[in-house]
Each structure stands twice: as C-alpha cells, then as structure tokens.
Design a protein that fits this description.
The longest helix has 17 residues. The chain has 17 helices and 23 strands. By secondary structure, the chain is α/β, with parallel strands linked by helices. α10 crosses α11. The strands form four sheets. It has a seven-stranded parallel beta sheet. The chain has a six-stranded mixed beta sheet with strand order 3-2-7-21-22-23, with no helix packed on it. It has a six-stranded mixed beta sheet with strand order 9-10-11-12-14-13. It starts with a strand and ends in a 16-residue tail after the last strand. It comes from Cytobacillus citreus. This is Amidohydrolase. It holds the Pfam family Amidohydro_3.
Length: 550
C-alpha cells in the first residue's frame, strides 16, 4: 500500500507499550500506515508520496490535554489580557480597560482575564472604585487566573442584582469591607453566578472557539478534554459541535458534561436527556458528568482535612454535601455515565472517592474509568483508594511551576503529595496530564518540564520526590489522555492503524537538558493526516519530485 506522507530520519517516540523509539512513520489518509526504520517506511513510497525529513528531531503522538476550558480560553482572547508582556502594574491593566471601553458600546460587558495579584507591582486586587473610575456605563469584570474569583465594578453588581443586602450564595462569598460595603470581589460560587449575566453572544463564543483551536494546534495539541464553561453548558456544547462540523475547531474534543455555573443543574439535565458517555465520533464525543466539589488551590479555597499552613482556622470550601454528591453523580453512574468532579483538597478528594465507591457498590461496573479532576493534595491513603477503585486522576503539573511558591506557603509539607506523578506511576495508577488552561499556561512542554523538575518559577523545589522522567511525562500527556476518554485503541501512540495525529518538536527531547525542556518548541502539528501547523516550513522542504533511496 502506498503512503501519502512519509516522515524519515526522526527520533520517533512511539509511546507504545514498550516505549519503542523508531526513525520513521508512513501515513495513508488519516491513519498511520507504518512505523520503523527510515528504510522500512520508505518501502511505502511512490512518486506521489510526500517525503518529510525530520532531521533527527522528535516526532511523537499529538498531545492530549485532559482538562482545559476551550470556550473560556477562546472568549478570553476577545478581552483584555492581564498576562500580556507589558502588564506590570494595575495601572497597565486600567489603561487597557479604558481603551476597551472606548471601543465597546455602552452597557456591554468589558472583561479582563488572567489576573494574578502577586505578579503585579502593587500585589493586590483592584478596588471597585478604581474600576468605577474607568467606566460606570460599562459593566467591568476582571477574572483571576484561577477562574474562581473576580473583581467587578458597580455597574456589574447592579446588572447582577447584587446589593449590600444580598446573602452569600451556597459555596460562595460576596466580599464586604468592615462596614458591610461591597468591595466588588466575588469568590467561588458568587463569581460563577455572575456569569449568568456576563455571558458572551453566540457569534463571539464561536469566534473564540476557533481562536482557541488555532492556538491549541500551534502548541502541538491534537485532542482536548473540554472541562466546561460559564452559563448554559448545553449552549456551549451545541456551539462547539457546530464549530467542529464547520471545520472551525480542528482539535478532537472529549466534552465533560459540566458547567462552572450551577453544575448540578446541567448534569441532572443531561443525565435525564438520554445521551451518555461515549456518544459521538473521533472528532467530538460526550465525556463524563462533572461537578465542582471545592475551590482553587491558589485562592486558596480548596477543602482540606487539616488547616492551611498559613491560616490555622481555614479548611477551605465545599460545594456539596456527601449525600448530594452521592445522589447527583450516583444517578449519572447508574445511567451509564463516566463520572468525575473538580476536587483539589484531600477532603474533597476523599468525598468523591466515597461517592464513587458507593456508586460502584450499588451498581457495579467494570472498566468505568471514573475520574478526579486535578486531585491536588492526593495523600498516600487516597492514592491507594484510587488504585483499588480504578480511578483516573487528572493532575496539572504546570501548577507546581506557576504556583509552587504559594503552595509551600499554604500547604507546607503537603506539597510532597500534590499532583503526585511519581507515586501514581509507581502504584500503577494511570494519570492523564492537563494544563487547565486558561487557568495556567497551555504549553504541554511546560507541563513536561514541571513534571520532570518540580521547581517553581523562582527555582524553589516543590515536592522533589514526585519527579518523573521525560518519557513518563510524554506518556501522561498522550496515551494516558486517550485512556481517560476510552480512546487508547485509536490514538495516543504512534502505532499502525491509529489516527495520524502527530507532533514534531524543534529538538530531540530525550537529549535536551532537563532544565531547558520548557524552551523546546513545536515544529509541526498534524491532525487526522492533515498538516495544520508548520512553523519552519518543514513540509516545504520535502522531496516531492523524485523517489528517495536509502
């Protein structure tokens, strides 16, 4: 059988069960035709075959990010970025917000994203009054990088119907000063509920989805597990399917059934509607039913069994009682769903494990692959329960790089068990890596760097006992992600018959200084046999006019 494209002279990291390294890959249509030496794959060449010389660089399966927010990532790109290179202070953000207000019709929302107070000169949140000084005719919201907290102006509070008499919602805080006046800061469920009013128009959402997909492809990501958006989750799913069908979203999507706003309502709606996990095709598929159980690891608002190291009376925040969890997710399990929950603290993790164990005792099911999103402080006893129950944790290694200094302050020695990649591998627990973008940086190479080195941006070691190898990190970002969506038989490794989703790196990653892993670039990304990104025109240098012989 002739090949359409043949990649030769590469460091082909297959991520097969033997972690084999090959030299070449032949592709026919949207499938991998052959894997082997350069000589072996060239045996499938014809006059029409495109030959792409990888020149010794690493070729590996397309990255599979097992937890990010496609819609939020995309719509953020339509707003003001608080992580742009020129942002050094609150005033820099205010300048950009003023510009955005000038080009936005009065009464329409002005949004900023990626805010992180510790990265700014003032090291604080803006005040409501400072946002009012920018505009009282536009509702303004600044979203913290964790997506669990925001600061808004008076117009936004007015539109949301929030007054000094408004009670805190369950699982949320409307912050007030010592005199009971609203500060404009909304935490957890108060922040989530704001987005019942601060929603985007459908055309904006669709535009954002395309922008997000393009950035994912440039990052070498070919598959994502979408972890939900604000507002009506059903609308987001519908728009996403339309964008995929129209070819605007190129990455493959495994859609978690969850919403950042009133997640239980959306889960119950979808569970009662009939479709279950697995419905769809290799471009779009229904994933697990998902709830939120606790908060943000850098809020910090996660639910812990012991108090925070820096605040001895604080144990974080729980969204649902054990009975509520058991009922909502237990019903989803009974009806055939894979189930999962955002659970960061060890208390929250224990609750979701109790929920899964109860569901399996009442309605046993083999190979359920129930998940835990993030599974932040995963103590050894919780790891052992994950192994026993067959649970798939979804850790975020880049959190250690971005937030490691704060974790040391908030959780002390518990960092030894945060996102414990080494323990998972040693115990035979399949954990799929994820970025949680836009909560942190999208780049899988940064995630690999963080998993291998376990150092913060300031160079502090954060749980060195959990360091893993480069090959192990690559597997967690490829095959393990496919396993978490029941798709390891069609993708996640470079093997004959699997989908031709391929990423080529700028260097031989197995030979790069491990302290420089984050500097490796994406050279080329192929999805479904089609080259969608080619940074240095690697395909333009292919030999199409004559047959290459070895």
């Amino acid at each position: 059988m002739e090949a359409d494209k043949i990649f030769i002279n590469g460091e082909v990291i297959t991520v097969d069960q033997h972690s084999s390294i090959a030299e070449g890959v032949a592709v026919k249509g949207n499938r991998i035709l052959a894997v082997g030496s350069t000589e072996e794959v060239l045996s499938y060449q014809t006059e029409d075959t495109e030959i792409i010389n990888v020149n010794g660089k690493s070729l590996l399966p397309g990255f599979n990010d097992a937890h990010l927010h496609l819609t939020i990532y995309g719509t953020n790109l339509l707003g003001v970025s608080c992580i742009a290179p020129h942002i050094k202070s609150l005033e820099d953000i205010f300048i950009d917000l003023r510009k955005k207000c000038q080009e936005t019709p009065k009464g329409k929302w002005v949004r900023a994203w990626g805010f992180k107070e510790s990265s700014l000169k003032e090291n604080r949140f803006p005040k409501k009054e400072e946002l009012d000084a920018i505009s009282t005719e536009h509702p303004i919201v600044i979203i913290r990088t964790c997506n669990h907290t925001s600061i808004v102006n008076s117009k936004a509070l007015e539109i949301a119907g929030i007054t000094e008499q408004s009670p805190d919602p369950d699982g949320g805080i409307i912050e007030r000063d010592l005199n009971g006046r609203l500060t404009g800061k909304l935490i957890e469920n108060a922040h989530m509920q704001l987005f019942e009013y601060a929603t985007y128009a459908e055309d904006e959402i669709r535009k954002g989805m395309k922008l997000a997909s393009d950035e994912f492809i440039q990052a070498g990501i070919t598959s994502v597990h979408d972890a939900g958006a604000y507002g009506d989750g059903a609308d987001s799913l519908r728009i996403m399917q339309q964008a995929i069908h129209a070819g605007e979203v190129k990455v493959r999507v495994y859609a978690l059934i969850g919403s950042l706003t009133n997640s239980h309502e959306f889960v119950e709606k979808m569970v009662n509607a009939g479709p279950i996990t697995g419905l769809g095709d290799d471009r779009f598929k229904i994933g697990p039913a998902k709830l939120f159980t606790d908060g943000s690891s850098v809020g910090p608002t996660i639910a812990t069994r012991q108090p925070y190291s820096h605040k001895q009376d604080d144990y974080g925040m729980i969204y649902y009682s054990q009975d509520e969890l058991n009922h909502i997710l237990g019903t989803a399990h009974k009806k055939g769903f894979q189930i999962t929950a955002h659970a960061q603290g060890d208390c929250a993790i224990e609750m979701i494990l109790d929920c899964i164990e109860t569901a399996l005792n009442e309605h046993p099911r083999e190979d359920h692959r129930h998940r835990i999103e993030h599974a932040g402080i995963a103590s050894p006893d919780l790891q052992d329960r994950m192994k026993k129950l067959g649970v798939v944790p979804i850790p975020n290694p880049a959190f250690m790089y971005v937030n490691g200094d704060r974790y040391l302050e908030y959780y002390g020695d518990r960092v030894q068990n945060m996102y414990p990649a080494r323990d998972y591998i040693d115990k035979g627990i399949i954990a799929a890596f994820a970025s949680d973008a836009p909560v942190t940086f999208l780049d899988p190479l940064l995630g690999i760097h963080a998993a291998v080195n376990r150092k913060s941006t300031d160079g502090q070691v954060v749980g060195e006992n959990q360091c893993i190898s480069v090959l192990e990190a690559i597997r967690a970002y490829t095959w393990n992600g496919a396993y978490a969506s029941f798709e390891e038989n069609i993708k996640g490794s470079i093997e004959v018959g699997k989908l031709a989703d391929i990423t080529i790196l700028s260097e031989r990653i197995l030979h790069v200084d491990q302290e420089k892993l984050k500097d490796v670039k994406i050279e080329l990304t192929m999805v479904n046999g089609e080259v969608l990104y080619d940074r240095n025109d690697l395909c333009g240098k292919k030999n199409q006019s004559s047959t290459i012989k070895v």
